[in-house]
Amino acid sequence: MLIIGHQTVAGLLEGREKEVVDLVADAYRRHDEGRTSLPHSVFLRFPDRPRDRIIGLPGYLGGSAEGGEDDIAGMKWIASFPGNIASGVQRASAAILLNNLRNGQPEALIEGSLISAQRTAASAAVGARMLLGGRRPSGVTLIGCGVINREVLRFLAVEHPALDQLTVYDTDPERARRFTQDNARLLPSATVRHCATLDEALAAHDLVSIATTAATPYATLDACPPGTVVLHVSLRDLTARAVLGAHNVVDDPDHVCRENTSVHLAELATGSREFIDASIGALLRGTAKLDPHPGKPLVYSPFGLGVLDLALARFVRDRARAGGLGSEVTDFLPAPAA
């Protein structure tokens, strides 16, 4: 069993944003081609602590079309405890277990919080690329100033190096101030603006990333400029009306229409999924196209497919093995039978 800790993972992913985006886009294509097995994620909740949860995401990502031996199976086990933030502990913690596909045995245990954050951010960057359709965004607005939007900003800065306007909004103004102070290096030439209200922030630019801990919808998109691309990463911020008034792209309709996401609530309100225009994998493969109305926002709502975590975990595992990194535990499994 190879065990890879957080610092090693961080070192292996540093400066690899373009490769991570390519891995995520490739995983989406494979999923759209039917080369994955992806059961619904399992939500472990606690009766007396409604904000806390632990989610299990099992999955299998099939090999490349060229026939390479790069298929992978495993599971991410990720906890979200929003109260951690007040005590200086990260909200999310995760572990990813990879299995050997020859014999099914577990072969790698990887600290997964950064992998999870970066695959989410890379997914957002892929969504922005496809929904912007070649447009240069006027700037980017971040709603929620936590780890996920930090990584979204990192990946958008690589995808759109000409970004020179950054607007932020958080219900805690001090957290927003610390966020821009700590992450100014990601967009060193950008003009930074702090907003006092949500609508002021939504009106600032035609590219918005929403990554909060909201459990129930609170936001409309009435203040957005026409054609705004909204990366709805946290999934539960937008009202059903806002979703139904937009063009909608998701990663997988069966996965995202669950667990009271905004897309799920819109489905319950209408009794159908006809408001979903396309999946991101189909857009990437060219089997679907968007023909957006110029006045409507475009909303990307990625549920977060476990195969993205597996793609990045495989990348980390292979690089760790090549560099002799991580800790090998030789007596983790039972000894072979005589």
TrEMBL record:
GO terms for cellular component: cytoplasm. One of its GO terms (biological process) is siderophore biosynthetic process. One of its GO terms (molecular function) is oxidoreductase activity, acting on the CH-NH2 group of donors, NAD or NADP as acceptor. It comes from the Bacteria. Pfam families: OCD_Mu_crystall. InterPro entries: NAD(P)-bd_dom_sf, ODC_Mu_crystall, ODC_N, SbnB. PANTHER family: KETIMINE REDUCTASE MU-CRYSTALLIN (PTHR13812). This is 2,3-diaminopropionate biosynthesis protein SbnB. It comes from Streptomyces albiflavescens.
